[in-house]
Amino acid sequence: MPQGQDTSSYTGRFDGTHSKHASPAMAAMAESANPNEINVGMLPTSTKWSVLSSRMEGLVAELSEMVSKQDAYCISHSRAEGKAMRAVREKMLSTPWADEWDQRRCMFSYGEEMSTDPLEAVLLKQLVFMAKPRRVLEIGMFVGYGAVAMLEGSPAARVVSLEIDPYLKEWLGSCLSDAGCTDLMQRHEVLLGPALESLPKLTGEFDMVFVDANKAEYKAYVEGILARGFLAAGGVIICDNILYNGYPYMHSHFDAQPARRHFGDAVRDFNQWVTDHPDLEQVMLPVRDGISIIRRTEDSLQAQPEVSAKEGISGGEWLKLSGHPCSWGVDYADHPSNPAWDKVISLMSVAGYTGTDLGPVGYYDTERLGSMLNGLKLDLVAGNIFEKLHEPDQLQAIIEKTKTSCTTLKKFGAKFFVIVPHTVPEKEATAGRSQDAPRLPDEKWDYMMSAIREVAKVVKSQGICCMLHPHAGSWIEYEDEMERALKDLPADLVSLCLDTGHCTYAGMDPVEKFKKHVARIPYMQLKDIDPVVLKRMQDIKGSFWDGVTGGIFCVLGKGKVDYPALLRAMKASGFSGYATIEQDFDNKIDDEEKKLMYPATCSMQSVKYLRDLASAM
Question: Per-residue b/e over 148-166, b at no fewer than 16 CB within 10 Å?
Fold first, then answer.
């Protein structure tokens, strides 16, 4: 306004503050159009208005434009929904929930609003991708959209969902099966029942917990998780609906749905409890209905008492389990049938192992191994050679391989190295039939023992425990050969890696052998032998490799080895540490999916069998 002009005088129109039309009504009349189809540029805004009614309309229109389109804009530009997530969402939208409830097929009346929101689900997926949790606990599953998002986030993640309604477990299972996503199903476990009743039945630690169940029980859920030690060091708890329609911070005078007030107050009390808790810190985010990310404080983690390796270990944690590439058919690093090493090690984590053996030298990419171990939360446990120790011209190459392997083992803190004598045609043909098998002449035997000692000295010089592994189809296979080797090799130089499968294949009782040589067994390899296949191989005089391709090595607990007796003997002896599960497999097949997933599925079953067995002791 020019200087000196009377501010109270009439000025006419306020240029720059008006919209094209004074109001939506005027715009509609001017355009002779449907009011619902008016060009948005015709409407008033919070700054462009003429009279009170248009100012109010402008404020509401701008607020609606800004708020109502925000979530839709975000999700439309968040391209993270995978195949399984899409299948669950589409089935959820097409399910006639009202009919399902009318027919009482489900326990409660459901609707799509009860699902994890798409924007929040893809956020969960990205959090799992970044954090790489090995185990995730979900409290409250509904249709499983959030669970599937987390499973898609990392191929190494295993999710345990607590869900009260059996209908929903079946609903999700059929959805994933129909969508061809059975690989995710292998990593997902659903425990049925009220969450507070299911929590005490859990074992082990979880790296991430997602809480989205009864809002009135949030505090009890988190208290139970902390009290039972379910949250791993560095783990996080993510809670959904912590803004709960605004009820936690709005006065009850504004309640649009008074029936929700009880849950809103419970969420408010939970939020305050976390805020005041001396051992917790949280970040609250206004994503959809609000989420909080909770973790233990650094001080509380440092104050946790350390647990001795042999004292204070609860459940089955005294027995740690690792995998081996040989279960995926990898006996030689450069064989063209080998599956990709990074897929194999990822599937080990999926199967529930907490460690891996190195396998043949050159199979694992040692430049990437460290990041893979860290990301998958796996320990490197042991290395091995599978070589012709009875042939003098092979010794120097064997020693070089041993040095290379030990360098990697030492770098990543592995403690064990296993010498496995290679199979030979004479013994392969008589595997499992001691009476038909030849024995190595004394002179050649003595040389083989000297070669093993030379390799063991190299291993010991690196501070790693060296062990001998009697192997079916090799010159150290049967009881007389194993006992002779243990007598010829110094106990302070060469320990025994007892392989329960090869021991059984050779006609020995692995439980008795463990008891006899327990002082010399710091580490074991666990296999099982299918008695039907063994009998058939013995009847037809099949070779060792015939046995492998015929499925002689089976899932633990389904064969001849008495694992309950073995684990009792192990625990009674004070054994605490790693044992490697193996199931020799012929990977020379064209089915690339089976090449990866069949060993992974078998591993999952064996891991679960042993963990359940160990936990019960």
Answer: bbbbbbbbbbbbbbbbbbe
Computed from CA positions of residues 351, 357, 360, 364, in that sequence, does the dihedral angle turn out positive or negative? Answer: positive
Instruction: Tell me the Cα Rg of the chain.
Output: 33
Q: Taking a C-beta distance cutoff of 8 angstroms, is the pair 602, 583 a contact? A: yes
Q: Which residues pair with 209 in a beta bridge?
A: 137, 237
| Rounded Cα–Cα distance for residues 263 and 375 (Å) | 38
- Closest by CA to 149, choosing from 177, 174, 115, is 115
pLDDT tens column, 43-98: 667 677 667 777 787 788 778 777 778 878 888 888 899 999 999 999 999 999 99
The whole-number pLDDT of residue 312 equals: 33
Quick one: how many helices (H) and strands (E) in the chain? 25, 16
What range does the domain containing 48 cover?
24-68
Same domain, 295 and 325: no
Do 485 and 527 lie in a common domain?
yes
| Cα separation, 340 vs 332, whole angstroms | 13
- 289 and 430 housed in the same domain: no
Instruction: Report the Cα 242 to chain-centroid distance in Å.
Output: 27
Contacting residues for 57 by C-beta, under 8 A, at least 6 apart: 23, 24, 43, 44, 49
Whether residue 341 sits in one domain with residue 256: no
Residue 15 lies in a domain: no
**pLDDT at position 257, please?**
78
H helix intervals, 429-518: 442-461, 479-488, 500-505, 510-517
Query: Total domain count for the chain?
Result: 3
The Cβ of residue 403 has, within 10 Å, a number of other Cβ atoms equal to: 15
Question: Of the residues 276, 302, 328, which one is the last residue of a structural domain?
Answer: 302
Query: Which residue type is seen at 581?
Result: I
Does 1 reside within a domain? no
Claim to verify: residue 234 and residue 341 sit in the same structural domain: no
Do 164 and 45 fall within a single domain? no
User: Which residue in this structure is represented by tokens 């529930």?
Assistant: 352
The terminus-to-terminus CA distance of the chain in angstroms comes to 89
Same domain, 473 and 376: yes
- Cβ neighbours for 81, distance < 8 A, ≥ 6 positions apart: 89, 118, 121, 122
pLDDT tens-place string over residues 422-463: 999 999 999 999 999 999 999 999 999 999 999 999 999 999
- Say which residue the tokens 């689900």 belong to: 121
Give the model's pLDDT for residue 307.
36
CB atoms within 10 A of CB 84: 24
Q: Is the pTM of this model over 0.70?
A: no
> What distance in Å separates the CA atoms of residue 431 and residue 276, rounded to the nearest whole number?
66
- d(C-alpha 344, C-alpha 363), whole Å: 11
Joined together, the tokens standing for residue 607 give 């891991």
Are the CB atoms for 496 and 506 separated by under 8 Å? no
Which residues on neighbouring strands pair with residue 420, listed in sequence order? 386
For residue 372, give the CATH number of its domain.
3.20.20.150
Position of tokens 């040692």?
366
How many other CB atoms are there within 10 angstroms of residue 308's CB atom?
9
Which residue do the tokens 């973790």 mark?
295
Q: Does 539 score more than 50 pLDDT?
A: yes
Query: Which of 600, 602, 595 is closest to 335 using CA atoms?
Result: 595
